[in-house]
Each structure stands twice: as structure tokens, then as C-alpha cells.
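Subject: Interface between my chains keeps coming out wrong

I've been trying for a while to get a sensible model of this assembly. When I model each chain on its own everything looks fine, but I need the whole thing in one frame so I can look at the contacts. Pasting all components below, labels as-is. Any help appreciated, I'm running out of ideas.
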Amino acid sequence: MADTVGVGIIGAGSIANMTHIPGYKGLSEKVRLIAVADVLGERADEVAAEHKIPMAFDDYNRLLELEEIDIVSVCTPPVAHMAATIAALEAGKHVLCEKPMAMNAAEAQLMIDAAEESGCKLAIGFQSRFSDSAVALKRLIDGGELGDVYYGRAVYNRRRGIPSWGMFYSREQNGGGPLIDVGVHVLDLALWLMGSPKPVSVLGSAYRKFGNRDDVFNRFGPWNHTDYDVEDFTTAMIRLEGGATLNLECSWALNIEEDLQSVVLCGDEGGAQLHPLKVFKDDGKMLIDWDPQGLADTNYIEMHARSLANFVDAVINDGDPLVRPEHGLHVAQIVDAIYRSSETGQLAEI
Ligand SMILES: NC(=O)c1ccc[n+]([C@@H]2O[C@H](COP(=O)([O-])OP(=O)(O)OC[C@H]3O[C@@H](n4cnc5c(N)ncnc54)[C@H](O)[C@@H]3O)[C@@H](O)[C@H]2O)c1
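Reply #2:
Try treating it as a single job with all components included. I did that and got this:
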């Protein structure tokens, strides 16, 4: 592979404009932005003009015909992730697909099969792994500081934060609600920190208590409460290969004091939590808390930029991206199993 790559963007909405396009522009010594495609052709034209991207299409298949494109970012709603990703892989492009990987695990598996068949790389946009504190905690865990990590708790709770834009509360477009929208970020982060074990079984519950009401405060303003057909809160206990357990909570609306994003990990030599990073140890005579200093509070845009840079480097150097597609599949399997378990009231095996 040459030391520069051509990039195309499929889906020219919020995430493409906020993070992917600026992120690739920041890698201009390695990346040439070649084309953008969106079913809304005018949107593709406007975005191309604004960012000086040479070509715009209303059909991504035309973008995929361009030989000078090596990498494609799939930034459509989840309902289109699988088709766009597989088409791109079959066209010989490496793909960075936004989270969630797909609508469900069956789709995610087909994407992995297509990547293997094509010999091209596939990664998923789980940028939370790239914060300074997540990287530091991974280093401590891999160095044995926490010992055997047998319990994790992953939380992404909003007190009132139902997305009022886009189609995030449509099951048909997204495959689910806060679980598949924001829960997947903390799920992926916790699983990665725990060594990416396979999920084994799930006991989960999903609730819709606010989505269809018109008398509820929402910090993102009014939404279409009649079209809302996903959950607004999920909780689950997830058993992992090797015996560890991960508990998850995520909401767009929940009667709690304040929003909370956190990952807690407990091992037999120490524990830790993120946001901010703290480590809890014991020397036999006393409890010792570590309060690491000097870590930047990596912002959202920077985490995305690092995720894009990691993928570009993996393509140029023929290495593995940090976020492997199998990890996206594990998250999708857990999401499916939580919804299944919630419906049946039973443990869902994976
Ligand atoms: N990693 C993160 O933190 C993060 C944050 C926000 C959104 N996302 C993800 O990014 C994806 C897009 O979200 P968004 O907020 O940008 O949505 P959006 O609605 O703002 O943009 C999506 C764009 O895709 C276009 N589109 C739809 N179907 C298409 C198709 N078949 N071909 C080409 N274009 C198509 C739409 O017209 C729209 O312009 C979702 O999967 C979402 O979950 C990730």
C-alpha cells in the first residue's frame, strides 16, 4: 500500500460533518478526501462544496467505482450499515463503519464474512477506547495491576436526553434505542478493557416509560412521541467467557440525580474506574487510592480523530485496527440477547 490513501464518505449527516471529515482533513499528509455520497444528493453536494471534496454522489455505488478510493467511512443510520459496508468491501475498499456495527448480530456476521472474503479491513467507530484515560487503564490492566478482572459495571445514563433529531428512536432505522445508540460505547469499552472475552449469556430488561409521553421534560426539546418505538432504559447482567460478569445500565430518560457515564472494573489485585481514571488498591495493611495525574481530558472530536488515524495507519501499514470487527459482533450479540431476554423474561444464551 502507498503511504497515502484516498477516502470516501457514505452518509453526509452529523457524524460525518462533525468528526469524520474534519478528522481525515487533519491527516492531510496521509489522506486525500475524494468523494462523499448521500441519498440526499443536495446534502452530498453541499458538504462536498463546504469541505472542498472533489466529488459528490446521491448513490454510493458510484463512489465505490472510484479506483482512487481505498478507505470508506460508513456514516449512515444503522439500517444502511450492512449494505453499504458489504458493497464497499466487495468493491475492494477498507471500511470504517460507524457504531453500532449493524442492526443485529446476524448482519454483523455477514459484514465480517464479507471482510474475510475481500481481504479488506473492517473496523467499527468505537472511539471511546482512544481517550488518554482509557489507554492508560488498558495499560495498567494488561500489566496486571488489577489482577484477575472478574467484574465490570458499564453505565451510560442520561436523566433526560432523548435525541429529538434524526431517527434515533425508530426501531426500523436503528434496531433499538439507547442500548444500541449509547450503551454500545460503554459496552465496547468495558469488554475491551476486560480483554475482549466472548459473551456467553445475558439476563436483561428493557423498558419504555417516557418515549410515548408528551408530558416529559427533555433537554433536547420535543420529539415525536407517537413514532417512538424503542426502549428508553435497559439494564443487563452479562456473563463472559472465563467467568467474569459485566453489568450494564443505559438510558435516554431515567429518574436519577444526574447523567452518568462510567466504567468500573474490579479485579482481585485492584479496581479502577474511568471518567476520571482512579485506581483502588490494597497493600495488606491499608487501602490505597491512585489518582493518576497528567492525563489529558481527551475530548470527543480528538477521540474520533485518533480512531480515524488508527484505521488509516492500519491500512497503510497492513496492520490490525484497534477496534476489530469481532468486537463489534460481540457487542451486537449482547444487544440482541438483552432484547431477547427482556421479551421472554429468561436468560438468553449467546
Ligand atoms: N461514534 C459516535 O459517537 C457517534 C455519534 C453520533 C452518531 N453516530 C453514528 O453515526 C451514524 C450516523 O449518525 P448521524 O447522527 O450522522 O445521522 P444523520 O441522520 O445526521 O446522517 C446520516 C446521513 O446518512 C444518509 N443516508 C441514509 N441512508 C443512506 C444510504 N443508503 N446511502 C447514503 N447515505 C444515506 C442520510 O441522508 C443522512 O444524511 C449512526 O450509525 C450513528 O449511530 C456515532
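Reply #3:
Confirming on my end. Residues 61 and 87 are 8 Å apart (CA to CA).
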